[in-house]
Amino acid sequence: MPEITTGTGWCAPPARPQDGSLDGGRHWWEGLASGPLTVVFGLWLAVAVIYWPSTLALNAIWLGASGDAYTHGYLVLISSLWLIWRDRERLEATPVAPVAWAWVPVIVLSAAWLWSWRAAIQALHVLLLPAILLTAIVAALGWRIARRSLFPVGLLLFAMPVWDPLNHPLQTASAKITEVLIWLSGMPAYVQGDLIRLPDGTIEIAQACAGLNGVVIGLTVAALYGEIMRDPLRRRLIWLALMGLLALAANGIRIFIVTVAAYETDMRSPLVRHHIWLGWVLFAIAVGVFLAVAARIANIWDRGLSGQTPRAMTGDQGPAPEAPRSAIGARLARAAVALGCLGLLPALSYGMDLVRSASDSRLVIQWPQAPHGWRGPISDRVSEWSPRLVNPSAESLRLYVNARAEPVEAFAVAYREQTQDAKLLEFRNDLLGSSKQLHARSQGIVNSPAGRWRETVAVDPSGSRSVIWWRYRIGNRVFIDPRLSQAWYGLEALTGSPPVSSLTALRAVCRADCRAAREQLAAAAARLRPVMSLRPVHSDGSRISQ
User: What's the confidence (pLDDT) of residue 305?
Assistant: First the structure.
C-alpha cells in the first residue's frame, strides 16, 4: 500500500459523475468558468502580462540568449501548467478562503520587483515572479489552494537563471571524475586544474562543458517524478540526489570518452570539437538508469510497508464540499482588487515612462585641461590598456603627462540609462580589456585625498606591472562597491528620471616599484575629474553648438 503522508501524498482522485458534470448539477465547463482553476490560470496570465519585462527576459533566456543552461525553460513551464490541469478536480473541490492581508506582501514583492528591474538585476526580478504569483494565489483563493499550487509554481525555479554559481563546482567535479577514470584506464594523461594533458595536445574542460544544463534538467526530471508518483518528501530528496549524481557522472564519462578519442586519434577525432550529441545520449541513459533504480527502490520500500497500518492522513481527506459560489459582482470585485494590487506599482512606473519626454540629447564626456606642469588631455595612441564595456552611451580614453614625463591614462565610460544589455555591472564587461594584454595580479581598496578607489595591480605579457584605480558614479554619488552602485541606481530610477551612470579609471605604470605609480594616481585623482554632460542634438542627429 502506498505510504500516505501529507496533503501532497497519494489519495484517490474524486470520482467524476456519470453525466459528465462536476457535482451532478453543473457541467465541467460551468465549473471552470467560475471556479478556482480559472482564477489560478488567470493569475498566471496576469503576472506574465503585468511583469512583461521579466517575461521577455525569460523568453530570451529560454531561447538560448545566455547559453544552453536554461533552454529547457519552456518544457518546465508546460510541465507546471500540466500539473495544475492534472489536479483540476481536486483544485475545484477545495474551498476558497481569500486572505485579504496577503495583498500587502504582494505589493511589497511588486515594489521589490520594480526596484530590481530598474536596477537591471535580471536574476532577481525574474526570480520574484514565482513568489509574486504564489502570494497572489494565497490572497485571492486562500492557503489550501496555494498549497496545491506550491509545487507547480516552485517547479519554475528549475528554469530560472539562479544556477550559474554551480558552474565552477561542477567544472571541478567533472575534472575529478575524469581524473579518476584516466587513472583507472592507465592512459598516459593527467589532469591539471581544468586542463587534460595528453601526449599530443591539451583538452580544456570549459565552463560550457561543466554539465550545468544536464544537472539542472536532471533535477527537474527527479522533482517531476516525485510529484507524479506523489512520493513523500524523504523519497523526493533521495530522487533529487540520485539524479543529480547520475547527471554529473554522465558528464564526467562524456569528457573521458572525448579524452580517449583524442588520445587514440592524435587529437584528430571529430569528438574533440563536436561532442554535444554524445552528452545528450549519455544523459538519456542516465535518466533511464534513474527511472529503473527509483522504481526498484520504491518497490522495496512499498513491500516493506505492506504489512503496516498506514499513518493517519494529515492532509486533505479527499474532496471537500464545494464552497458556495459568490455573486458575480463579488467575484468581479475580487478580480479587480487582484489586478489592482498586482499592477498598481508597475502601472505607475510604466505611466511615468510614457509621460516622460523622449531624450533629444547626447551624453558627452568632457576631460579637464591639464593642471600646471602637466600636458593633456591627449587622445591616447594605441595602448595595451583597452577597457571593454558593453553598449555604453559614451566612452573616452585620454593621456596626461606630468612634469616628470610620467604618463597617466584616464578612462571614462557612461550610460544614459542602464538596461540589462547596457549597464556597469555586466558579465561581459572587462576593465582590463578583451585583448588579454593585461592580467590582474591583486585587487584591493585604497584611500586618497580624492576619496576611496578600487585598486587592481595588473601585469602585461612582458612582466611589467601597472596600477589601475577605478570607481563608479551614479548621478552625483560615488561608489566603490559595484553591487551597491547598481542598487542605488534602481532606487534613483524609481523616483524620477534615471541618473547618468559612469565609471572612471586611472592607470599608471610601475617603475622599480609601484609606490611612485600610486603617487601619480593620487595626484591625477584629485585633478582629473571627467564631467558627464547632455548636449542637445538636431533632429538629424548632429550636435547643436553651445
Answer: 63
